[in-house]
Amino acid sequence: MSEVRTQSAVPDAAAARLMRRATYAAVGVAGVLVLLKVAAYLITGSVALLSSLIDSALDAAASLVNLVAVRQALQPADPEHRFGHGKAEPLAGLGQAAFISGSSVFLIVEALGRLLSPAPVTEGGVGIAVMLFAIVATFVLVGYQRHVVARTGSVAIAADGVHYTGDVLINLSVIASIVLADYLGFGYADPLFALAIAAYLLFNARGIFRSSLDLLMDRELPDADRARILSMARAHPQVVDAHDLRTRSSGQQTFIQLHLEMAPHLPLVEAHAVAEQVAAQIRGSYPRADVLIHQDPAGLAERHHDALAYRDRAAAPVAAPQHPGSGE
Asked: Residues 15-39, buried b or exposed e (16+ Cβ, 10 A)?
């Protein structure tokens, strides 16, 4: 039988331009905030502000890596990379997770040292002014990133936006720690807030690591998506059944493969048309998917390799081996 393959559309020039501009904006904003926070930390000596400085430095590094990854991921497939360049994004994500984890450990060491040897926070007004500017700048950036995500559906830009949204909370916590330490005399607030921010950064690093690893290891789409795809395939009146569904994601692109069972006597040209219709319906729900459909005659004896079948076999008890002369 033949196979039908429909490929997702490459992002148009306007969408690619928006994605690149969003990465440039993120790098620019993070760079400005790093410079301001370096000056504010040197003036105030606040370890909580140091934590915000580290976070902004991470933002700048992550956004720079994101810029390179997005540029690479937008490259069309070529003879050496027939599935495109989408894996550039999760590769960059692993590097970001490692960088964030290392910086968080450094921040924890600094905060513990400040707990053991407290130091006063000075010029709190300068620190608060810098944090307020950072909050406004981050809000503007996140708003633009959401606009770009709505237009392009970029996973990388969406993830960057979530990270910068969390920065607003970090900046607010730094303001609270400066107020408590400089104006109310509660010196331990500064390192305690820094420890909380370090824990938050480690939590984010864990999420980035897991999602990046899933993409690199070609993890299947969630069961709800798989069930939805099979339901759409089986809904066609000329489809007897569907099996061997295989899915994975690579950057912005999703790859979907499955077998359709149809009446054995159906002419090849009609079976091909049915597969085209099923693929078009799947693409309607997953517009960036590369859909590959193989047509099988119903009743053909073959081994199926569905993900759920693998799980069932893994969970099934292993039968005891039979030995000659055992009487069984």
From this structure: bbebbeebbebbbebbbebbebbbe
Q: What is the pTM of this model?
A: 0.57
| pLDDT tens, residue by residue, 183-195 | 777 767 767 877 8
**Domains in the chain, please, with CATH?**
11-216 (1.20.1510.10), 223-315 (3.30.70.1350)
Q: Report the distance separating Cα 32 and Cα 137, nearest Å.
A: 10
Instruction: Answer yes or no: is pLDDT of 244 > 70.
Output: yes
Phi and psi at residue 17, in whole multiples of 5°?
-65, -40
- Compute the Cα dihedral for 13, 19, 20, 21 and give only its sign: positive
Would you say 110 and 36 are in contact if contact means Cβ atoms under 8 Å apart?
no
Closest CA relative to residue 139, chosen from 162, 163, 164: 164
Q: What is the DSSP string of 177-203?
A: HHIIIIIS--TTHHHHHHHHHHHHHHH
**C-beta separation of 70 from 154 below 8 A:** yes
